[in-house]
Amino acid sequence: MSTPLTIALPKGRLYDRVQKHFETKGIFFEFEKRKLVAYDKEENLKIYLVKNSDLPTYVAHGIAGLGICGEDVIIESGHQFHKLLPFSFGGTSLSLAGLKDFSLENLNGPLTIATSYTEMTRKHFHKKGIPVKIIRLNGSVELAPVLGLAPCIVDLVETGSTLKANNLEIIQKLQDIRVHLIANPAYYKIHYKAINNFIQQIRED
Amino acid sequence: MKNNLLRLPQGTESLYLEETFRHRKILRHMEDLTERWGYMPVQTPVFDFYDNYRTLLDSKLDDQTYKLIDREGDLLMLRSDITLFLARQMGMILTEEELPVRVYYSDSILRYQDHEDISSHEFFQTGCELIGKPGLEGDLEILFLLAELLENFKLPTSRIHVGSTLVFQTIAGALNEEDSRLLAQYLQTREESEIRKTLGRAYKKEDASALTALLLFIGTGEDFALQKVQWDTLLDGTLKESLDHLKAISDSWSAVEGFDEMFNIDLSETGNQAYYSGIVFNAYTEGCGTSVASGGRYDGLMDHFGYRGDKPASSIGFSMFLRKLETLSTMKIPESMVSKKMDENMSALEKLTETRK
């Protein structure tokens, strides 16, 4: 038997989608209760279940050679990976949102934004020449305009229902966020044949 | 005071006891082997005037370089790239009659590289430079020396991926500056559709597809020879000479037993320094998340530092990150004499007798 490829998958909603997609391609696996390492039935893959935001770190250090995660996590990590295959599922968008009466035109100073995505936010607005003051939050950012911490937020928006519930609306979309199969560049260079075969197997029709 | 003793400045690194022993042992091994190939040691300064290098630093290396102001108010930089410091040293002293010159070095460099590893900004590099030997012969000598070293270090599966800056530059030459930068970025991340899209802004659709396949190619010399035929005629044959050169390199390594397994042609390798001008390469080893050695050809660099010979001081070299190799090497390290033989109860006289045996 050849050595299995190592792949990290993120806990949470995306995991379910990846598992379902892999099953349609004949790759079956499940994690025993509380265990975070599993093999697929054929033992071609060794799979690690990790926290979404930690996934790039495991791949960057070569602990897992491959990983599946969104561009938001990749960009925020600051690491560079091979983005070998984009998926149609799990996509979302990074958007600027604020209270209904907020307008970008009425600014008379830097735009204050609360967000968990500080890197992407800074890059986006600096590229556009708009000065920003960024306040980092680790979750529930939609509370920031409601409680008066910042007039607007940058966050991932899937359906927009959380924004609506908090009386917020999208001001502009910053970028689309897609889910990718990523690889540690050095790992890819050593295992490119096996990885290319794996890509052919999991490629969407 | 106690707390300060526990704190370490971010990025510093020390080696301890057996770790140091292992480090030195591998280094000695490297020095012995390269000296047998005719290479002589050199030492570069730990800092130099920033202005001497300013135009040669790309924005990434410039960002990563530590700078300081000396007592006269001049801006200095700490050694962040040995090749640059060595080129200045050699450019000033070498004469045409002395070429070719073979040198090796073992020094630390200091770079701020938090995206790679926040715990270490001090990297120990050892490497070789072959100055004044242009073309295929020079390329092969450096590639084969690196392969020989990696084999001698008894590493897990290792591969040297050889690419060409010239192929990339010829293709990117038709793009505007921003698209050229994007192409390099997408090639680093191997985003096939983005590469094709970027090339499509300067080339016909079918050419953009063929060039994408070429730039993303990784394979053995044999795989490359099969594909190359269809790429020779691309862009009115302007790539053919560079592709022929890569083919000649792969033909040569195929002639050495075991080297077919050690090398790949990889056109996504385009070099990470602005001064590269020919082949470029990276070495990868199973178990290490980044390359363990890298290098390439950089003809013309020495001219920048005052070399004025008629014969070109073309150069090619590589550097290895020794700390990465140490953890992977299965080279047998003999146990320290201190722990076994030199027992604490032994008197100085007994030690002297023992060591003189």
Automatic annotation (TrEMBL), chain A:
<comment type="subunit">
    <text>Heteromultimer composed of HisG and HisZ subunits.</text>
</comment>
<protein>
    <recommendedName>
        <fullName>ATP phosphoribosyltransferase</fullName>
        <ecNumber>2.4.2.17</ecNumber>
    </recommendedName>
</protein>
<comment type="pathway">
    <text>Amino-acid biosynthesis; L-histidine biosynthesis; L-histidine from 5-phospho-alpha-D-ribose 1-diphosphate: step 1/9.</text>
</comment>
<comment type="function">
    <text>Catalyzes the condensation of ATP and 5-phosphoribose 1-diphosphate to form N'-(5'-phosphoribosyl)-ATP (PR-ATP). Has a crucial role in the pathway because the rate of histidine biosynthesis seems to be controlled primarily by regulation of HisG enzymatic activity.</text>
</comment>
<dbReference type="GO" id="GO:0005737">
    <property type="term" value="C:cytoplasm"/>
</dbReference>
<keyword id="KW-0547">Nucleotide-binding</keyword>
<dbReference type="GO" id="GO:0000105">
    <property type="term" value="P:L-histidine biosynthetic process"/>
</dbReference>
<keyword id="KW-0028">Amino-acid biosynthesis</keyword>
<feature type="domain" description="ATP phosphoribosyltransferase catalytic">
    <location>
        <begin position="51"/>
        <end position="203"/>
    </location>
</feature>
<keyword id="KW-0963">Cytoplasm</keyword>
<dbReference type="InterPro" id="IPR024893">
    <property type="entry name" value="ATP_PRibTrfase_HisG_short"/>
</dbReference>
<dbReference type="InterPro" id="IPR013820">
    <property type="entry name" value="ATP_PRibTrfase_cat"/>
</dbReference>
<comment type="similarity">
    <text>Belongs to the ATP phosphoribosyltransferase family. Short subfamily.</text>
</comment>
<dbReference type="GO" id="GO:0005524">
    <property type="term" value="F:ATP binding"/>
</dbReference>
<keyword id="KW-0328">Glycosyltransferase</keyword>
<dbReference type="InterPro" id="IPR018198">
    <property type="entry name" value="ATP_PRibTrfase_CS"/>
</dbReference>
<dbReference type="InterPro" id="IPR001348">
    <property type="entry name" value="ATP_PRibTrfase_HisG"/>
</dbReference>
<dbReference type="GO" id="GO:0003879">
    <property type="term" value="F:ATP phosphoribosyltransferase activity"/>
</dbReference>
<keyword id="KW-0808">Transferase</keyword>
<dbReference type="Pfam" id="PF01634">
    <property type="entry name" value="HisG"/>
</dbReference>
<keyword id="KW-0368">Histidine biosynthesis</keyword>
<keyword id="KW-0067">ATP-binding</keyword>
TrEMBL record, chain B:
<dbReference type="InterPro" id="IPR004516">
    <property type="entry name" value="HisRS/HisZ"/>
</dbReference>
<dbReference type="InterPro" id="IPR041715">
    <property type="entry name" value="HisRS-like_core"/>
</dbReference>
<feature type="binding site">
    <location>
        <begin position="81"/>
        <end position="83"/>
    </location>
    <ligand>
        <name>L-histidine</name>
    </ligand>
</feature>
<comment type="pathway">
    <text>Amino-acid biosynthesis; L-histidine biosynthesis; L-histidine from 5-phospho-alpha-D-ribose 1-diphosphate: step 1/9.</text>
</comment>
<comment type="subunit">
    <text>Heteromultimer composed of HisG and HisZ subunits.</text>
</comment>
<comment type="subunit">
    <text>Homodimer.</text>
</comment>
<keyword id="KW-0028">Amino-acid biosynthesis</keyword>
<feature type="binding site">
    <location>
        <begin position="275"/>
        <end position="276"/>
    </location>
    <ligand>
        <name>L-histidine</name>
    </ligand>
</feature>
<dbReference type="Pfam" id="PF13393">
    <property type="entry name" value="tRNA-synt_His"/>
</dbReference>
<feature type="binding site">
    <location>
        <position position="129"/>
    </location>
    <ligand>
        <name>L-histidine</name>
    </ligand>
</feature>
<comment type="function">
    <text>Required for the first step of histidine biosynthesis. May allow the feedback regulation of ATP phosphoribosyltransferase activity by histidine.</text>
</comment>
<keyword id="KW-0963">Cytoplasm</keyword>
<dbReference type="GO" id="GO:0000105">
    <property type="term" value="P:L-histidine biosynthetic process"/>
</dbReference>
<dbReference type="InterPro" id="IPR045864">
    <property type="entry name" value="aa-tRNA-synth_II/BPL/LPL"/>
</dbReference>
<keyword id="KW-0328">Glycosyltransferase</keyword>
<dbReference type="GO" id="GO:0016757">
    <property type="term" value="F:glycosyltransferase activity"/>
</dbReference>
<keyword id="KW-0808">Transferase</keyword>
<dbReference type="InterPro" id="IPR006195">
    <property type="entry name" value="aa-tRNA-synth_II"/>
</dbReference>
<protein>
    <recommendedName>
        <fullName>ATP phosphoribosyltransferase regulatory subunit</fullName>
    </recommendedName>
</protein>
<dbReference type="GO" id="GO:0004821">
    <property type="term" value="F:histidine-tRNA ligase activity"/>
</dbReference>
<dbReference type="GO" id="GO:0005737">
    <property type="term" value="C:cytoplasm"/>
</dbReference>
<keyword id="KW-0368">Histidine biosynthesis</keyword>
